[in-house]
Amino acid sequence: MVKKALEALLKEDRVFPPAESFRRRANVSDPSVYDSAAKDRLKFWADLAGQLHWFKKWDRVLEWDLPYAKWFVGGTTNISFNCLDRHLAGPRRDKTAILWEGEPGDERRLTYVELHREVCRFANGLKLLGVQKGDRVTLYMPMVPELCVAMLSCARIGAVHSVVFGGFSAEALRDRINDSKSKIVVTADGGWRRGAVLPLKQFVDEALTGTPSVERVVVFKRSGSAVPMKKGRDLGWEELVGNQSDSCEAEPLDSEQMLYLLYTSGTTGKPKGIIHTTGGYMVGCYASTHWIFDLKEEDVYWCSADIGWVTGHSYVVYGPLLNGATVLMYEGAPNHPDNGRFWAIVEKYRVSVFYTAPTAIRSFMKWGDDFPGRHDLSSLRLLGSVGEPINPEAWIWYHQTIGGGRCPIVDTWWQTETGHILISPLPGITATKPGSATRPFPGIEADVVNDQGESADSGYLVIKSPWPGMLRGIYGDPERYREIYWSRFPNLYFTGDGCKRDKDGFFWLLGRVDDVLKVSGHRLSTMEIESALVDHPAVAEAAVIGKSHEIKENAVVAFVTLKGRAKATPELNQQLKEHVVKKIGSIARPDEILFTADLPKTRSGKIMRRLLRDIAEGRALGDTSTLADAGVVNSLKEKYEED
Ligand code: WTA
Predict the structure, then answer these.
(1) Which of 268, 605, 609, 631 is least enclosed, having the fewest CB within 10 Å?
(2) 513 close to 460: Cβ distance less than 8 angstroms
(3) Which option is the CATH number for 20-436+444-499: 3.40.50.12780, 2.40.50.140, 3.40.190.10, 3.40.50.300?
């Protein structure tokens, strides 16, 4: 992957400066913002924070005790207040906040004042259930406005939300509930996906067979499917909010009050609960949305990410609502009822800013130009990309076929851990190059370093100083936080991404350098999938690698050795795939499983995944001199090629 991407990127020399008409109206168009932010980073962020509402202003902008940052120390605020109440006094009161389309084609619109009312009612409902400041609430929901309502309600009263993506299995949900010790789970009777109902409540029931912390389950009615309700534990959303008052004061919260946990995959078998807090995260989301997506009062903004991922947290919910935007939300799949669904939505709602992932763009390319060609996409004025490196070919297609050659593209680099975008063009300033995320956002100090941690043109992407929305740790595991992010290079935040910097100082992201995979935009860990495989009674050992894939970026390939009596049959192969789905979810289903008598190992017993990658990619084998038994890879290579 890295090598191929690099070759393509090295040839890329096209440049796309912003059109004069775009630049003239852009929220930021003066390139001196970079210098002034660099001169006084703290002032830069403090000025942006000053545009939001604080119950009490902060005493100090930053307290930095590596690896722990505190932003806007001593200040109190509330992100739910800033997303809602702040807009109610002016013309945004009756502006559409959420424009929602269900997969079957049903529609809902909520204005800011209506969204505020729903949030107050649900927040009061949560209080009635005994939820207090700091309590964790797990949200396992489809893409419906009530998911935003639930998040903003937690934030309003200082409870911590932990959204679990609906594509995770019951077991994965259980682990996340237990790690966070959530008191409440909010779910739905189902959500529509590709014409079928995803039975979320059933998964919750399965998960809750082993979750001692959970007291109550709130069930939103979306699909109308009949679901069993457990007496004393489960109650309907309507039943809960029915008698609740429309007003609930937003709690003044310490800037460092925990806002949410979001579980993400790392390089071990266990997902990490990434901690985000209130004030800094709010400022980072607010500013990046305003500057990068260039939102105007009349825009219809659509980020197609699921709220179960960080992109949905920061750029479906918090960033746009902080900016008083009209946010489009779509419940279902991009290919239902046909491959043109997204473009039908753009046309129908006159979407003007559209943000999606390269994996989606590559699928659209494959489906052909006819689908977008049938729809009027002239409302679009800005396009965004996130989640993986975008190959120049997909960038150009996106620019021409979707953007009609007139929309700037913002290729935004960031992570669950960073909270908000750290590297991206500013669409009224930056002359973009297809495949490059261009430059660090003003106020962000990023660098590329070699193995020794010295600044270099190619190597690893690091961040040199704290930023407002940075993670505040891994829930319940401070040691791991220090080790993963702060031990590889002294005093630098290690991103885990390979990166090259060109002569103009532009950053070209080259994918992960660790065992984290991106499969159709979903972040997965090879170790997590390996643990799921070895959990099966027939499996002795497993090694999982990502093989480059034309559309999904990575395909999951597993090499598996079986225990004594187990037979390597196609049925077992299938069973193992299902086992991974059961343990993690369908997003982690291996594309290929290869049975093998042995795995290539070093003399000290470490599996050499690099060689497995060479085999899966059909490349000549790299250095095999440290192998304990060189015969293993040759026979494996032959076997792989036969299969
Ligand atoms: C990758 C998603 C290249 C990167 C917001 C990072 C990108 C990981 C880009 C984080 C981009 C994200 N160009 N690579 N524009 N954006 N990545 O936590 O490898 O799901 O480390 O957050 O996605 O994935 P996560």
Answers:
(1) 605
(2) yes
(3) 3.40.50.12780
